[in-house]
Design goal:
CATH class of the largest domain: Alpha Beta
Order of helices and strands: EHHEHEHEEEHEHEHEHEHHHHHHH
Oligomer: single chain
Structural class: alpha/beta
Number of strands: 10
Strand content: 15-25%
CATH topology of the largest domain: D-Maltodextrin-Binding Protein, domain 2
Number of domains: 2
CATH architecture of the largest domain: 3-Layer(aba) Sandwich
């Protein structure tokens, strides 16, 4: 009998591997009866995971860091996903970051992930939160783009697929990929409460294996139209945006990471960014947040080859730290 598993993921293009796995019965073949749910914002994702409303959350890894650092909850990151596919969008009348002065930044939750990216980008251009611009917590991507469409006083937001493409159609202006401003960044991840993961180890391994198989299916160009059709049916995405989204999801270095691996430099930068923006966080070794044993076992089960399967890959080298400093403009300390 299949085991019930509740997964939380926002309704963006990043949820596509899960949606494919449901349609192709990949999860069922691995003995998992999967229910996919979503919430309006990442704060509800974090609190829902802590309450055991769901078992695994797919969201920016900064949320897991916040749960550990701020809420003192024992969560573990078990898989990566992507660098965010984030772009910094502004209203059409905004020519540069300086023009955001006096406006509003709309965010998901004000204390994690992409909001922190925006604060750092604006700070580096001399704009201070609450002095030069106001922060308005709106919720997930589709709610942020709705807010920008409804009111031009909502000046800026970070958006990703498919909403970044919709933003262009609405005449909003992209100031560029956020990694252009802040350097490498680990965004996409899957995490769970450690106690639950340890008690359901085999189930979690089978889930990750099924996810990896579904991810490969998504990234296979032969399945382009089938995936676009799912975006159209499930997210209400326009056909042209769905097709362009699929092209971008497969773009190396921008889209979905082919093995859902964790990028060490990106994760270190994410940790450093949080520490620079939130007094409640500090620089920590990435290994404090990650347990790759589930992922490693799942790779073998999914008959995949791991580019990042060995926990020793996290070993720090001076040249890596120096390179991260140059790219991220953040202070890394041992």
């Amino acid at each position: 009998m299949a085991e019930a598993l509740i997964i939380n993921c926002s309704p963006t293009a990043k949820s596509l591997p899960i949606r494919v796995g449901l349609r192709e019965k990949t999860f069922a073949r691995h003995g998992i009866d999967l229910l996919l749910v979503s919430t309006d914002n990442s704060r509800e994702q974090r609190s829902g995971l802590a309450r055991r409303d769901f078992h695994v959350v797919h969201v920016a890894v900064d949320n897991a860091i916040a749960m550990r650092d701020v809420d003192q909850l024992d969560v573990i990151v078990v898989m990566g996903g992507d660098s965010g596919m984030n772009e910094f969008f502004v209203q059409s009348h905004v020519a540069s970051i300086a023009d955001i002065r006096g406006g509003r930044l709309v965010v998901d939750a004000p204390d994690t992930a992409f909001a922190l990216q925006a604060y750092k980008i604006l700070e580096d251009q001399g704009l201070a939160r609450d002095r030069d611009y106001q922060v308005v917590a709106i919720g997930r991507g589709e709610l942020r783009i709705q807010a920008m469409r409804a009111d031009k006083a909502n000046t800026a937001a970070i958006l990703n697929l498919p909403y970044s493409l919709e933003a262009r159609r609405l005449g909003l202006r992209s100031l560029g990929d956020t990694t252009k401003f802040i350097g490498p960044y680990q965004a996409g991840s899957a995490f769970a409460m450690r106690a639950w993961a340890e008690a359901h180890r085999e189930q979690l391994i089978r889930y990750i294996a099924a996810y990896l198989e579904s991810l490969r299916w998504v990234l296979d160009p032969r399945n382009h139209q089938a995936c676009a059709d799912i975006l159209i049916a499930d997210l209400g995405t326009a056909p042209d945006i769905a097709n362009e989204t699929m092209e971008l999801l497969r773009r190396p270095g921008f889209g979905l990471e082919p093995q859902a691996a964790i990028d060490e430099a990106g994760l270190r930068n994410t940790i450093a960014l949080r520490a620079s923006q939130q007094a409640s966080s500090r620089l920590r070794d990435p290994r404090e947040y990650v347990d790759l044993s589930y992922y490693t076992a799942a790779l073998a089960l999914a008959k995949a080859q791991a580019p990042f399967a060995d926990p020793e890959h996290f070993e720090t080298a001076e040249k890596e730290i120096a390179r991260e400093k140059r790219h991220a403009h953040l202070s890394f300390r041992k």
